[in-house]
Design brief:
It is a single chain. It is built from 11 helices and 14 strands. With about 300 residues, it is an alpha/beta fold. Strand 9 and strand 10 form a beta hairpin.
């Protein structure tokens, strides 16, 4: 995508997120082009702003790619980051939803505060309230001292609710109350506490279908779905497989390289486990290879 061409065609300011070559390697940039008109209303000049987004590289090199669908998702994250709008990350398992959430946090004004990931599918319904909101001393048997909850521990940072589609209905009610009022009460307590966090959620489920089935609250769905971002599966960005393999090897197995025949087989695979599966495959090949080249026999 070329913002200059789009500006010429539309006569309006255009913005695009893409990758530019640099002396230290590829860099993710946000490019904005604005037309400057003459006294006849014709385009005479262009004002171009280029902002490098270092945080877009994510963590451990996994948030890497050049496919248009992948860059579109990163561009949406970059647009949403400075605001407080709730973001819903959608995508299959292994597409990098937590990495995207961390990048969003690093690009936001809350980057100096905690990033608090909460694995919703791992929270038992009986313990979810005390884990999220904490409890007072003596609230139940074994509560020998007060405990701070995950919401309170976020303290001005980003609360990341991973796999929110797995949250049971009774817990959804408590989350909705938190989001609507901005306050919470500890288990066994009566005093309301003010919550201060930026909400980011993720799921591999079809939440709209769950709403129709009655397994996910409609009001909660509209609360968290203010800014949805789809992370594409690896089979829809096969061109990134080569880039990702080189990145994995450079980071963890320097000096080793993929044989062309092995890379050709990887490019044909659908990768149902997405980027996570590819990373594990490359790691296993590197461990099996005694020499520098990773061949078909190691696949």
């Amino acid at each position: 995508p070329c913002p200059l061409r789009a500006t010429l065609e539309s006569g309006r300011r255009q913005r695009v997120f893409h990758i530019q070559p640099g002396a230290a390697g590829p860099r993710h940039v946000d490019v904005e082009v604005e037309p400057i008109l003459d006294d006849r209303g014709r385009v005479a000049y262009f004002l171009e702003r280029i902002h490098e987004i270092q945080e877009a590289r994510g963590h451990e090199g996994e948030l890497v790619g050049r496919a248009s669908s992948f860059l579109r998702a990163l561009g949406l994250l970059q647009r949403a980051a400075p605001s407080e709008v709730p973001v819903l990350l959608l995508g299959e398992s292994g597409t990098g939803k937590e990495l995207a959430a961390r990048a969003l946090h690093q690009m936001s004004t809350r980057r100096q505060r905690p990033f608090m990931p909460v694995e919703c599918s791992g929270l038992p319904e009986t313990l979810s309230e005390s884990e999220l909101f904490g409890y007072e001393q003596g609230a139940f048997t074994g509560a020998n001292k007060a405990k701070r909850g995950l919401v309170d521990a976020t303290a001005g940072g980003t609360l990341f609710l991973d796999e929110i589609g797995d949250v049971p209905l009774p817990v959804q009610v408590k989350l909705l109350r938190l989001l609507e009022s901005g306050t919470f009460r500890k288990v066994g307590g009566t005093e309301p506490h003010r919550a201060d966090f930026r909400l980011v959620c993720a799921t591999h489920r079809d939440l709209a279908a769950m709403v129709r089935e009655g397994t996910f609250r409609q009001d909660l769905y509209y609360r968290i779905n203010a800014f949805p971002v789809n992370l594409p599966p690896l089979r829809e960005r096969r061109g990134d497989i080569t880039v990702l393999c080189h990145e994995f090897l450079a980071k963890k197995h320097p000096g080793k390289r993929l044989a062309p025949e092995a890379l050709a087989l990887l490019l044909e695979h659908d990768f149902p486990g997405n980027v996570r599966e590819l990373k594990h495959v490359v790691d296993r090949m590197a461990l099996l290879a005694d020499g520098e080249e990773l061949g078909v026999e190691h696949l």
